[in-house]
Amino acid sequence: MRIRDLGYSPGELPPGPKNSILDVEGVRVGQRTVHSTHNGIPSHKGATIILPRPAAHIQHPCYAGYHVLNGNGELTGAFQITEWGYTNTPLALTNSLSLGTAFSATWAWLLRRARAAGQDDDAISRHYGTPVVAETADWLLNELEESVLAPQDISDAFDAAETQPEVLEGPHGGGAGMSCHGFAAGVGTSSRVVEAQGREAGWTVGVLVQTNYGVLRDLRIGGVPVGRLLEAEGNKAQEEVRGRMGEGSVVVVIITDAPMLPSQLQRLATRATLGLVQVGGNSAARTHSGDIFLALSTGNHPNELVDDGLRTPIGAQTYSVEAVKNESMNEFFRATSEATEEAILNSLVGARDGLTGKIRLEGLPVERVRELLSKHLVVV
User: Fold this and answer.
1) Is the pTM of this model over 0.90?
2) What whole-number distance in Å separates Cα of residue 190 and Cα of residue 31?
3) Does the active-site annotation cover 347?
4) Residue 379 binned pLDDT confidence (cut-offs 50, 70, 90)
């Protein structure tokens, strides 16, 4: 079940066949979820691995840009993206206390593949890329000490990325243990297709989110104040909690096959804010939140390495790239906003069964939401 099954289809642009980040050709997603019990208290943790390119080509750079709406969170590799304008590693999403594990395990995965391909230390250093890992804090649901993943868990998520056919929404992978607007939540995904001259299939914009923010009263679906309506009926979801534990974070990953430059991708990442506020309003960008949005393009295959290595002085070398024209960017902005909004809502619907940890997080009451949308949603 997804948000469209409740009667709301966000936006105007068409989704891709799966309505998923996997609609972007070559993108793979793997998830590992770990459920355990310690001293009688359940915990839920995991990791989501995103391969922007097939594993065999992961060292080929993807131009990238990012936007930080509120910065009480972490995105490793951000300095490289600022300096070089690209990333050339997998992306990992997990919980706050597993960020270091995910970073180290991503390095281990990269090194194993490089050695298997026959690369020596010099070749590995020339293909250097800082692993990109983002996090949200699952402390509302989990005991802190029980949040830490093992390196093998990250390795299992990498293995899953080779074969997993769909993105698991709700409390799966890095989204395990997360909440949104007082309900269980986690991972959500969506996509949009933008028309393109001379390209029958158009360009695809895919979004994957890891949600962990917001209070009930700010929840809106299709402009309907669903949170306030539920509150008026006595549904209080999870009571508001102050500080980092309560205000949480949201990570948005945007990948497009349209050829874009780093400056264009930074602009694209900024537009995820518009999709976020469609759902969360004033619950976003709280002082303790980490609202971090990353955009990548697989549309170019930049060759950043000179042909003859670095040992011999040679003349400067260049390469050519394509780029979407500036006056064509508006539809990509819309695609990003619409897909972000829908992905957030899918993260809620995907966790509709709720989750129990050190507290009970109920799931979004989907049947009641369906009724509220049927009554109040304006369809034009």
Assistant:
1) yes
2) 17
3) no
4) confident
> Any bridge partners for residue 296, and if so which?
64, 255
233 pLDDT more than 80: yes
CB half-sphere exposure, 82, CA atoms < 13 A? 7
pLDDT(1) > 80 = yes
Query: pLDDT of 321-339, one tens digit each?
Result: 999 999 999 999 999 999 9
Token pair belonging to 231: 């509150």
- Residue 213 · residue 249 · CB < 8 Å: yes
* CB of 265 closer than 8 Å to CB of 296: yes
Q: Please pick, among 291, 297, 337, 347, the residue that the annotation labels catalytic.
A: 291
Cβ(164)–Cβ(123) under 8 Å? no
Please answer whether residues 54 and 90 qualify as being in contact, where contact means their C-beta atoms are separated by less than 8 angstroms: no
Task: Taking residues 350-379, report their average pLDDT.
Answer: 96
What is the arithmetic mean of pLDDT over 337-359? 97
Backbone φ, ψ for residue 254 (5° rounding): -120, 125
Measure the CA–CA gap between 189 and 127, rounded to whole angstroms. 30
328 is catalytic: no
Q: Decide: 339 and 271 in contact? Cβ < 8 Å.
A: no
Percentage of residues in the chain having pLDDT higher than 90 = 88
Which two tokens mark 7? 């009667």
Cβ neighbours, 10 Å, residue 371: 13
Q: Count of CB atoms within 10 A of residue 78's CB?
A: 18
Q: How far apart are the first and last CA of the chain?
A: 24
DSSP tally for the chain: helices H, then strands E: 10, 14
Q: What share of the chain is helix, strand, coil (3-state, %, to 5)?
A: 35, 25, 40
Which residue type does 104 have?
S
Q: Can 291 be counted among the known catalytic residues?
A: yes
- The two tokens of residue 126 are 């020339």
- Measured CA to CA, the distance from residue 255 to residue 142 in angstroms comes to 30
Closest by CA position to 23, among listed 344, 335, 235, 379: 335
Catalytic residue among 249, 283, 297, 347: 249
Alpha carbon distance 278, 166 (integer Å): 26
Closest-CA residue to 204 (of 42, 346, 14): 14
Q: Choose, from 43, 289, 337, 347, the residue flagged as catalytic.
A: 289
The 8-class DSSP code of residue 140 comes to T
